[in-house]
Amino acid sequence: MSRMTSALWGLFLIYFSSQSLFATATTQVWIPSTDVQAFKSIHFGLDNYFTLLTKVGRGGYMFPTDLGLTVGVFPGFELGVDLCEQSDYPLSGNAKFALPEGWLGFFSPALAIGGFGFGTQKDVTDNNVLYALMAKTIVPLGRLSVGYYVGNERLLVTSKGQCRMACLL
Length: 169
What we know:
Layout: H1 3-20, E1 27-28, E2 31-32, E3 42-47, E4 66-74, E5 77-84, E6 91-99, E7 110-119, E8 129-138, E9 142-150, E10 166-168
Antiparallel strand pairs: 1-2, 3-4, 4-5, 5-6, 6-7, 7-8, 8-9, 9-10
């Protein structure tokens, strides 16, 4: 196959996959957002993050595969459950309540409070992260977000074992 044909096939695949694929509405690069699942809607998610052709000793890593189910319980409120593979205690829960931008007038930011990582095994999977977020869309910069979180101080640590229990997002 010629380079031109390969390039055209690549562009074809990118174009058509972008027409039907999109990022999970409630997370942005593994942080919470002020987006919330629509009322009476159900979202099945599959997140699998890994590195290709890189050994662990050279920076390669793999997060567990995460199968998620999120339900819009009522307007502005969602509940979810995640099943993370490669774990002896794979289930965890999450919840969020959010108010959209403009809820208090034109300049009001979006607000969200929620939690995730409500695991089933004490000090193993119970990260119990609680967070508060504020976000505002500013054209042409995009959406700017700021937030704060707290969680299980025994699990939320750096690679050197230092506590990361509370932090700005």
